[in-house]
């Protein structure tokens, strides 16, 4: 049985290497639906190659992206039209981000690299009254429900990879050079700490090993 599972895992790894797709970008359109049609300013924390920041600019007057990885920030600047209302900064989001306030703050697959409570407190401080915070995060699987949801995502992940790559050469993701680490908090941990810092926040488990958090500052 162990040998069979190992073979299946290796086959899936080969398949996904040939059919890559961005699990985080999958949620970008959902993020946009959580936001006003027009807003003044936005901060994208962990902006990577800038895809979400540029999407935010379609509804925002000004967008600031920040990421600790200088290589990926350089790539984001290359991909962004020079006169676009989008700028990118290399730095730590908790100590070096322009202070705002911002009408929108987004953070996708980044908060598990930060001290969680400190990050939420910083986002709350930098968010304008009436502003919206949207987080897409990852957690450590712990409960049976976590593992079942993860197992259900495996065939859907393969189907999505095939769908997104059919009939064209598979896109290659931009490589990150900054160190990464796996998530250490469970979903229960995230819910508990979020309730303390951001009362009224909406949290939900999602497919593809993600959860979402939406909070609107009173």
Describe the protein.
By secondary structure, this protein is α/β, with parallel strands linked by helices. The protein has a domain at 39-139 and 181-216: Vaccinia Virus protein VP39 (Rossmann fold, 3-Layer(aba) Sandwich), CATH 3.40.50. Helices cover 38% and strands 23% of the residues. It contains seven helices and seven strands; from the N terminus they run H-H-E-H-E-H-E-E-H-E-H-H-E-E. Strands 3-2-1-4-5-7-6 form a seven-stranded mixed beta sheet. 29% of the residues are buried.
Task: Write down the secondary-structure element order.
Answer: HHEHEHEEHEHHEE
CATH architecture of the domain at 39-139 and 181-216: 3-Layer(aba) Sandwich
**SS strand fraction:** 15-25%
- Order of strands in the sheet with the most strands? 3-2-1-4-5-7-6
In terms of per-residue confidence, which ranges show pLDDT below 50 for 5 or more consecutive residues? 4-21, 153-164
**Radius of gyration from the CA trace?**
18 Å
- Strand-pairing-aware structural class: alpha/beta
How would you sum up the global shape? globular
CATH class of the domain at 39-139 and 181-216, named Alpha Beta
Binned, the helix content reads 25-40%
Task: Average the pLDDT over all residues and give the rounded result.
Answer: 81
Write down the CATH topology of the domain at 39-139 and 181-216: Rossmann fold
CATH homologous superfamily annotation of the domain at 39-139 and 181-216: Vaccinia Virus protein VP39
Give me the number of helical elements: 7
State the separation between the terminal residues, measured CA to CA: 54 Å
Please give the number of β-strands.
Answer: 7
Biggest sheet overview = 7 strands, mixed
């Amino acid at each position: 049985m162990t040998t069979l599972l190992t073979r299946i895992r290796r086959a899936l790894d080969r398949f996904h290497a040939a059919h890559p797709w961005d699990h985080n970008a999958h949620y970008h359109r959902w993020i946009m639906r959580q936001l006003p049609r027009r807003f003044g300013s936005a901060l994208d924390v962990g902006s990577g190659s800038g895809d979400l920041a540029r999407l935010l600019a379609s509804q925002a007057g000004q967008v600031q992206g920040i990421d600790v990885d200088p290589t990926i920030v350089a790539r984001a600047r290359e991909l962004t039209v020079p006169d676009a209302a989008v700028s990118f900064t290399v730095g730590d989001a908790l100590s070096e981000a322009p202070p705002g306030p911002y009408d929108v703050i987004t953070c996708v697959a980044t908060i598990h690299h930060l001290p969680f409570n400190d990050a939420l407190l910083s986002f709350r401080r930098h968010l304008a009254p009436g502003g919206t915070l949207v987080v897409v995060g990852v957690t450590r699987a712990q409960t049976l429900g976590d593992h079942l949801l993860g197992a259900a995502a495996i065939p859907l992940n393969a189907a999505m990879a095939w769908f997104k790559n059919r009939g064209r050469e598979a896109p290659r993701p931009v490589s990150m050079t900054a160190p990464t680490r796996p998530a250490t908090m469970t979903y229960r941990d995230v819910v508990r700490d979020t309730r303390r810092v951001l009362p009224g926040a909406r949290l939900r488990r999602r497919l593809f090993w993600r959860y979402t958090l939406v909070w609107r500052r009173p």
